[in-house]
Amino acid sequence: MKSQNTPIVVTGSAAQVPPEIANQLGMVILPLTIVVEGKDYLDGIDILPGELYQKMRAQNIEVKTAAPNVGEYYECFTRIIDQQGCDILCITLSHKLSSDYSSAVNAAMMTSAEYPMNKVTVFDSLRAAAPQGLLSVEAAKRLHAGETIEDVVQYLMGARLRSGLIAALDTLDYLAQGGRIGKAAHLVGSALKITPILSINDEGIVAPSTIIRNRNKLIPSILSMLAKQTSGSKKLDLSVMHADAEEKAEALRRSLNKLYPTIDIPISEFTPVMGAHAGPGLIGLGYLYK
Fold first, then answer.
1. pTM greater than 0.85 (yes/no)
2. Which of 108, 128, 209, 214 falls 20 to 30 Å from 221 in CA-CA distance?
3. 2 pLDDT exceeds 60?
4. Are residues 253 and 168 in the same domain?
């Protein structure tokens, strides 16, 4: 539960924050919009990510996504202030991936003009999916512990560079359909049964970081990359994610539990912000370390 006057963390459904954790910390989760064959659905309300991925498997459908717009952010911010009278820290998707950040900034300016006694701070996570969620949850915990928004933003500036994702695609088909790889690359990659592994860089751009040619080495490769990227860490938070690939996600978590037996590792469905382009079958993880 949220303490009286503790600032509230707002983030999007793309951050994959488990509902029970969001409720416990008093976080507000704004749903992104998923457009399937021209019809709008609110993520997690009108359609679950798993439902979307099953639709994508069953038929060749056009899927687009949209972050909350200025009006939706403004309505959210003003509702929080009207009902609870507290300040707000909004943690958005990377501005390299979405208009989420600019919409939130514009809404924060409008809100501040109307409510000058309340502070609305917008922070660009430079991340998406599980790492965005891990940053948002940690921010909420620190605010509950009594840190100021300024303190938490200072922490986040460094922490976002100690967070990341490692995600393996099941197929190149959806990247090819969306024009994100060329036909030649698609044909060669499919023929060679190449599995790209995606990561997100310090600028907030998602790109392939390596490829593997033996699917039996998929989980060991993810574990190896995680160990390399978090080498020397004193504390590690992890979250497994998948796009309609729960059995593979469970296998990944079991492997992680053997290496990190003291860490509680949740599993969440991969955000459609990227899953709409990457396609079903993806597995991976998000991490945040100190």
1. yes
2. 128
3. no
4. yes
